[in-house]
Design brief:
single chain; alpha/beta; 8 strands; about 60% helix
Length: about 350
């Protein structure tokens, strides 16, 4: 019990003593309340959310799938989008009091739709507009790709709070921020703007490459790349004074949060990472200014071209963002989760058709 008390203090002290804020990622219904109690100021979801819940909390999603199938005769993709909206709507409601009490500074909940639409700027734009209909604290998540940026410019000009996700390189961050600055300078409208450097997922991508190519690189070294990227993104934002809040995501291990503590940024983590930090009695300590092992990073850059390009400010052209290795790795996860929901919808359709009337 004492260890749990110490762990809980980590998040209370994080909010009281540092500018770093924490969000919860893809929560179950129960985890929403647990995260709010620990000071979460927002919530992120992604296209794999429904598939995630089917594994961890099927009772949270099965009734929604059933209701949506009964409600809509549209194809399974459209029903999957409806399921996603209903899942996120209940989180939006839970975070709305925080949004209202903070005058719109906190309490945002992200929503991102069908990953198969990520190559179509018009579909991204339409999804972004409809997402905000869930509530003033619902924020569309936009992929950091050429089609995504086209939608971003319109959403910003129309005053929508926006979150640019799938940021795996300094080039993507720069492009997003420069477009936001250009649009707001032209319109005078400056809605809340977040950008998501992705930490642990980048390490997962490198591990997959190492396994594929038979490379002798330690997991510990590969897990450093995400926090390294996030720290470099933070330094870039501070240097250029970009009007963006970094929202670091894709955490896999506690270091993906603790390595960023002290920075004026936000980080989103699964409830399991909250729990792991609490159970370990992790002390609160500045992590953002800790030196990164330059030798290891140089070695990773020499081994993996994706690392070198990610950390160079001119490492990628806009048209290369969509095909960048870690972006594709992340999107594959999204498609798998989205597909699992579509398959569950198809199964439920058959069950309803066979049920006695």
């Amino acid at each position: 019990m004492a260890r749990a008390t110490v762990g809980e203090t980590f998040f209370r002290r994080l909010a009281a003593e540092t500018p770093t804020r924490v969000w919860v990622n893809n929560p179950t219904v129960a985890e929403i309340g647990l995260a709010l109690a620990q000071g979460a100021v927002g919530c992120t979801t992604n296209p794999a959310y429904g598939g995630n819940l089917m594994k961890r909390a099927p009772d949270d999603i099965r009734p929604i799938i059933d209701a949506c199938v009964r409600l809509s005769d549209d194809d399974d993709a459209a029903v999957a989008d409806l399921v996603q909206r209903r899942l996120v709507a209940r989180i939006v409601e839970r975070f709305r009091p925080l949004y209202d009490a903070s005058d719109g500074r906190c309490g945002y909940v992200s929503i991102q739709g069908d990953p198969e639409a990520d190559t179509d700027s018009e579909r991204i734009l339409a999804a972004g507009r409809s997402a905000h209909a869930l509530g003033p604290n619902a924020a569309p998540k936009i992929p950091a790709t050429a089609p995504g940026y086209a939608a971003l410019e319109t959403l910003v000009a129309e005053g929508y709070p926006t979150i640019v996700t799938e940021v795996f390189s300094l080039s993507q961050l720069i492009e997003a921020c420069e477009r936001y600055v250009a649009v707001t300078a032209r319109t005078g409208i400056r809605p809340p703007f977040f950008a998501c450097p992705i930490t642990g997922i980048f390490g997962d991508h490198l591990k997959a490459l190492a396994t594929r190519d038979g490379l002798a690189v330690s997991n510990e070294e590969m897990e450093l790349i995400g926090v390294t990227l996030a720290r470099e993104c933070y330094r870039l934002v501070q240097e250029r004074r970009y009007p963006v809040t970094l929202l670091c995501g894709g955490a896999r291990v506690p270091f993906d949060l603790t390595g960023l503590v002290g920075g004026a940024l936000h980080a989103t983590i699964n409830w399991s990472t909250f729990a792991e930090i609490m159970a370990a009695g992790t002390p609160l300590a500045n992590g953002i200014d800790e030196p990164t092992d330059a030798v290891v990073i140089r070695r990773l850059g020499a081994t993996f071209d994706d690392v070198r390009r990610a950390l160079a400010r001119d490492g990628l052209a806009v048209e290369e963002f969509e095909g960048f290795g870690p972006v594709q790795h992340f999107r594959t996860n999204f498609i798998a989760g989205w597909t699992a929901v579509r398959e569950a919808i198809a199964v439920q359709r058959v069950a309803l058709a066979r049920a006695p009337r």
